[in-house]
Design goal:
By secondary structure, the chain is α/β, with parallel strands linked by helices. Helix content is about 50%, strand content about 15%. It contains 10 helices and 9 strands. The two termini are about 25 Å apart. The C terminus is likely disordered.
Length: about 260
Amino acid sequence: MSSDLLCGSHAAPVVTQLRRHAPLVHCITNDVVQNFTANVLLALGASPAMVVDTEEAAQFAAIADALLINLGTLTHPQQQAMRAAIDSACAAGKPWTLDPVAVGALTLRTEFAQEILARRPAAIRGNASEIRALAGESGGGRGVDATESAHQAREAACLLARRSGAVVAVTGEVDYITDGERTVAVEGGTAMLTRVVGTGCALSAVVAACCALPGDRLENVATACWLMKRAGEQALTVSRGPGSFASALLDNLHAQAFGGAHETH
């Protein structure tokens, strides 16, 4: 299966749209990453909101431009809020994105993820083990850690995209983004992105933001992945370890959105 390679010249128009539209993203995400996720969205010019009460979540999902559902610290009460928010977003015609954290490794979240797939997410972003498990092809990884490469999950991502109607992004050393017919690869990045809590979850929030933009949703989601990889590469050059890397990542995401939108490498 061949993949087109996304470069900065293709990503630049999407970055311009992200800056112009400044989408409001309703994030029902895990407790560990809320602050970092909010800062990543703000760095890119988007607006984050973490509204988690069931009644308020339903109300706010119709107001926001996009919804993120992240299963990282899933609880039974949170399931109710997620269902309400998804139903409200769908009724209002707002796109929602699924981050199936640790699906395949744990029963509650695996069953819940399969349930909400019927509500037609706009995008799904996960690691190889999560995507393969969601597609019904493997038993999942080691918690949040993938035990397979993104390359090994490309076929599962295409299958999942066709079944769900979503653009599926399977992320790793190379990211593969597919709508079931077309596939885009995004190369680069750095292993340091795996040494900071929340980079993958924050990427899913950026995917959600990009799903709210006009244009080709496949290219929009691929650009979200491109932004994180490019910012990670640049952050690595000025950081001394995970702590300074996290700060530099936010700075370089901001630079990508407001000063580096025309980078072409």
